[in-house]
């Protein structure tokens, strides 16, 4: 294991938004919508942005498109006076070699951190020791710090234990973890056992407060594409000691998040289009929600959108 030549600026606590990918009618990347959305989120007070996550259709993007989205997002933040805002890029791949290349590409394009899913396609051939070594090899070679992304739903059910995550976290170039597994007990164990400065985040907006209570540093939540201020406000209320109001807001956000969970990133894009006027379609074979699902999305976000507007 090696130490990176330059120690990075630590990730600030708070809400990080895994942005959706925007496409034009001809299926090319919509650079204008990409920039607009990044600036809108930054102005809402979030701590950072994540591109090429599960919400960002990373598996639908070419290597060149990944680079283009990172550069466009970074430029939008810099030009809107958010040059210090961290930009995290999804760099997971099934081979160690490709993951390293994606980390290098991300660094060259302006990302500050890489977030990496564990390999799972050949899961039957990979024990915990091999997965840990996969992360060590990436961390050794990556020019930017990496984060662990634990998301069983995207990894054929592979759910890294707190022991495995803490072992990976020993590497000097591994700086955080996103827990979309939703296990707050695991989150508490990692917070307690990891090195100082290791960023521990929940991976869904329905347990922002719960994660903070056990020592977490924030959330990386797809629903924050739609209600960033509401998510930020939960963190603010917790840190100010107003747990009663924080619980009230968490309940509202959790109900909206359940709608987003049921319809996935396509539902988030459809809601953005309906509520904000931009969003577009996902890449095929994925499609937008049907009329019945759209009605569920609209009704399910009503209360949360009223809350969001009250915080503008």
Please give the alpha-carbon distance between the first and last residues: 46 Å
Q: How much is the radius of gyration in Å?
A: 18 Å
Helix-strand topology string: EHEHEHEHEHEHEHEHHHH
Indicate the mean pLDDT.
94
Number of strands: 8
Largest sheet: 8 strands, parallel, barrel
Form type: globular
Explain how this protein is built.
The structure is a single chain. 47% of the residues lie in helices and 11% in strands. The model is unreliable at 1-5 (pLDDT under 50). It has 312 residues and is of the alpha/beta class. It is globular. An 8-stranded parallel barrel has the order 1-2-3-4-5-6-7-8, surrounded by 6 helices. It has helices at 31-43, 63-79, 96-109, 128-141, 162-168, 184-193, 208-213, 228-240, 243-276, 291-300, 302-310, and strands at 14-18, 48-51, 87-90, 113-116, 146-150, 174-179, 199-202, 218-220. Helix 8 (228-240) runs antiparallel to helix 9 and helix 9 (243-276) crosses helix 11 (302-310). The N and C termini lie far apart (46 Å).
How would you describe this structure in keywords?
single chain, 312 residues, alpha/beta, 8-stranded parallel barrel, 8 strands, 47% helix, 11% strand, globular, disordered N terminus
């Amino acid at each position: 294991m090696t130490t990176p030549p330059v120690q990075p600026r630590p990730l600030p606590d708070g809400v990080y938004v895994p942005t959706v990918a925007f496409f034009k009618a001809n299926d090319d990347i919509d650079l204008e919508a990409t920039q607009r959305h990044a600036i809108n989120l930054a102005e809402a007070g979030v701590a950072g942005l994540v591109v090429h996550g599960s919400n960002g259709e990373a598996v639908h993007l070419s290597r060149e498109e990944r680079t283009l989205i990172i550069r466009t997002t970074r430029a939008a933040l810099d030009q809107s006076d958010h040059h210090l805002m961290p930009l995290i890029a999804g760099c997971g791949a099934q081979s160690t070699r490709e993951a390293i290349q994606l980390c290098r590409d991300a660094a060259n394009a302006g990302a500050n951190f890489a977030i990496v899913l564990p390999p799972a396609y050949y899961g039957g051939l990979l024990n915990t020791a091999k997965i840990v070594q996969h992360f060590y090899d990436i961390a050794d070679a990556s020019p930017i710090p990496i984060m662990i992304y634990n998301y069983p739903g995207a990894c054929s059910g592979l759910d890294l234990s707190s022991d495995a995550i803490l072992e990976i976290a020993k590497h000097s170039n591994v700086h955080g973890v996103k827990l979309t597994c939703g296990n707050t007990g695991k989150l508490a164990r990692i917070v307690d056992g990891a090195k100082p400065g290791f960023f521990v985040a929940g991976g869904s907006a329905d347990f922002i407060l719960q994660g903070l209570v056990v020592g977490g540093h924030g959330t990386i939540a797809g629903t924050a594409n739609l209600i960033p201020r509401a998510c930020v406000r939960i963190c603010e209320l917790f840190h100010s000691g107003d747990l009663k109001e924080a619980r009230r807001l968490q309940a509202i956000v959790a109900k909206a998040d359940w709608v987003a969970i049921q319809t996935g990133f396509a539902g988030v894009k459809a809601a953005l289009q309906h509520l904000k006027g931009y969003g577009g379609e996902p890449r095929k074979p994925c499609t937008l929600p049907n009329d019945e699902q759209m009605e569920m999305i609209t009704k399910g976000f009503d209360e949360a959108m009223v809350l969001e507007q009250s915080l503008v």
